[in-house]
Here is the input.
Amino acid sequence: MQRAIQAVLFDLDGTLLDTYDLLLTTFRYATRTVLGEVVPDEALMAKVGQPLNTQMWDFTNDDSVHEELCRVYREHNAVIHDDLIKLFPDTVDMLDRLKDEGVPLGVVTSKRHEPAMRGLERFDLGAYFDFLVGSDDWPEHKPSPGPVAYGCRLMDLEPGSCLYVGDSPFDIQAGNGAGCATAAALWGMFPQPVLAAQRPTFSCSRCSEVPLLLAR
Here is the structure.
């Protein structure tokens, strides 16, 4: 009997990789350097899960300032990346269990392709995945369903047979919109009520719960 879930797609930041400290430190540095002011942490992290270009428009309406915010962010992030990025405790075990079941895996992230791959390779995770869709690989971005639907096509599967796992409301919106089953990663950056409001198919408190969804 064929499983209902035949493939699993993952968000990256806050889902596979613990990047909270990395992102917050970089946002603080970029906004203080370019704007000369301290932006509250809650505002800095409010739209994590969308592309950096989108997030930075929250802090300026000026094109040149926006460009400088993105430039300073990316340069500083590249310097501190390997020191601050971390793995969630169960990430590798989860991926091993899914691979043992023969489940194809992919990544769909709002991060650009190169830095996203750098994060995976920092912990030798790249070989687990058949592909990675970054923000520069597809013209639409989460919460649009486009990049998730594209990931399903790369698997040669209908969205209804794929699970998308993410920790932001934008992930759940994108996965639901694409027609996938969705799993809210409660170990990530957003609180449970924020994710529950988007009506995910499943909610998981730990990475280790994701493989159990294959039997649902």
Notes: The chain has nine helices and eight strands. The first helix runs from residue 20 to 35. The longest strand covers residues 162-166.
